[in-house]
Amino acid sequence: MKFQKLFLIISKIPFSYKTSILLFIITGGMVSIIFLSQVSIYTLKHDFDVLFEKRTKSIIKLETIKDAYVINIHETLVDLQNGYISLEQSLDVIELGEHLIEKNWEKYLEITFSTEYETSLITNIINHFLAKEKRNTILQNSVVTNINIKHIKIKKIVSKILQELKQENFEEASILLKDVYFEINAMSVYITNLTSYDLDMAVSEKNDTQNVFNTLSMILNIAVVFVFLFSILLSIVIIRHFKDLHFNLEDVVDEKTKALQVLNESLEQKIKIEVANSRKKDLIMLQQARLASLGEMIANIAHQWRQPLGSIMMIVQGFQTKMELGKLSKEVVDEKVEDAMQLGNSMSKTLQDFQDFFNPNRAKERFCLKQCIEYSFDLSKYILDKEKIEFSLDINEDIFIYGFYNEFSQVFLNIISNAQDALSSQSDKKLIEVVATSSKNKIRINIVDNGSGIEEDILPHIFEPYYTTKYKSAGTGIGLYMSQQIIQKHMHGTISCKNINYKMHNQDFEHCTLFTITIPINNTHEDT
Fold it and tell me: Which of 22, 170, 303, 447 is the one with CA 20 to 30 A from 472?
């Protein structure tokens, strides 16, 4: 019944507290067990070392004193009386014996009554709680007092014997020698009593140490049982908690499942309605997307045709001007017709390129970079001549690119067109310079013009679609956007723009515009 009540009380404790208590009991119990075991080992070792040293040393000192009295004093006096040794020799031996006796006796008293050889604090506490009676030291003190008295008395008799022997009073010396022998025997009895007392104390202290060991072992065992029982009890409670939680979750899941089934049925109906509405919207958006794509394509074609159309118009005007001046010859007509046909072919290719722009199956070709850039400038030469714009190319003949020739040409036409717009309002020298370099990893192309540059707030937006600073009749804002798409998606490269200070034709210019096109080398070779 008590166990069931305890179990119910523990069950009412919150789950987080249960786990915390379990961890605390296990951790605290293990720490306590380790601590008690270490304390037990330390206590037993300390008490054994201290008591062993105390008792063995004291007994050895007493035996040394006993031997010194018998051998160094009594037997030396007998040998002196019998004439075996001289008086001087006996004095040395007796003096050495007395020195040994005093030294060992002082050491014995120091060991016996010193606090250095006390047992550990744990042993004293346990003995205190076990109501251990204090040992009676009256006998020990009495024997120590008698030994001190006897020692003084023997020393006096020995001195008298030595004086009588010096005066050759052998009869008197013999009588005193008997007294010394009697006193030494009495001293041996006292020393034997002290030895017996110390042995009894050693046995008693050994029993005390055993009691301490038994007490600590009992406490350790109780701690182990306590940790074990409470760990099992709390583990059972936690397991039951998990079972209850599992059953509650099953009920919740069943309720949620039923609610989801009802919700799914209603959603199916809503989805059918929304799908029907979505299809109608998709049809409308498809028509709008087609119209938007058609409008965007027309705008792109118009933008790409604007520059070659301007060149063709200039060729036609040139025919009229030369006819009026009487300079229209067959050679001039053939030259202008050839230029016009080249521009017309470029416009035709533009239509084909826009038709195939998003077609992944187009065939790439390997072409010379310098020829492609020269072709772009040839298409723009009439407008560049009209604006008196000079251009220079610094490109090696051995740089080849693998890609779409006409698309790459359109990129340069767009950049040239932007440079021409920037330079048209400038009265100073108008220059465009193209420099191309090749390394192991990439091809870098720099296009620089000495126009007034691009305003810093406009520069981040120049590659955005339909962003333009021109009038609507002059630009659509898609030229640089299309150029970026061609470089990034079809050439796997990058294109960037910034304002710089630059030196062209041995002259320094400020606020120049630099377009940089970088194409990786691994894109300039045909895939195998």
Answer: 447
Pairing mode of beta strands 400-403, 494-504: unpaired
pLDDT at position 435 over 90: yes
- Cα three-residue angle 190-194-195, rounded to 5 degrees: 115
Tokens of residue 289, six digits: 């997307």
Confidence of residue 294 (pLDDT cuts 50, 70, 90): very low
pLDDT given for residue 383 in this prediction: 77
- CA-nearest of 147, 179, 185, 146 to 160 is 179
Q: Please report where in the chains the tokens 């938007």 appear, as a residue.
A: 292
Q: At a CB cut-off of 8 Å and minimum separation 6, what does 21 contact?
A: 13, 234
| Location of structure tokens 């470089």 | 487
**CA 374, chain centre distance (Å):** 58
Q: Is the dihedral of CA 43, 45, 48, 52 positive or negative?
A: negative
DSSP, collapsed to helix, strand or coil, labels residue 324 as helix
| Chain segment 143-153, per-residue pLDDT in tens | 888 888 888 88
**Cα 82 to Cα 131: distance, rounded to the nearest angstrom:** 60
Q: What are phi and psi of 490, to 5 degrees?
A: -100, -25
Q: Kindly state the tokens that stand for 461.
A: 């937006």
CA distance 242 to 474: 77
Answer for the pair 498, 514: CB distance below 8 angstroms, yes or no: yes
The pLDDT of 211-235, averaged and rounded, is 73
Eight-state DSSP code of residue 240: H
Distance in angstroms (rounded) separating the CA atoms of residues 2 and 9:
11
Predicted TM-score of the model (pTM): 0.39
The answer to whether residue 327 scores a pLDDT higher than 80 is no
Instruction: Say how far apart CA 242 and CA 15 lie, in whole Å.
Output: 10
Question: Is pLDDT at 370 greater than 80 in this prediction?
Answer: yes
Q: How many CB atoms lie within 10 A of CB 245?
A: 11
Distance CA 44, CA 119 (A): 10
DSSP-based three-state secondary structure for 502: strand
3-state SS of 77-123 is HHHHHCCCCCHHHHHHHHHHHHHHHHHHHHHHHHHHHCHHHCCCHHH
Q: How many CB atoms lie within 10 A of CB 462?
A: 19
Please give the backbone phi and psi of residue 222, each rounded to the nearest 5 degrees, phi first: -65, -40
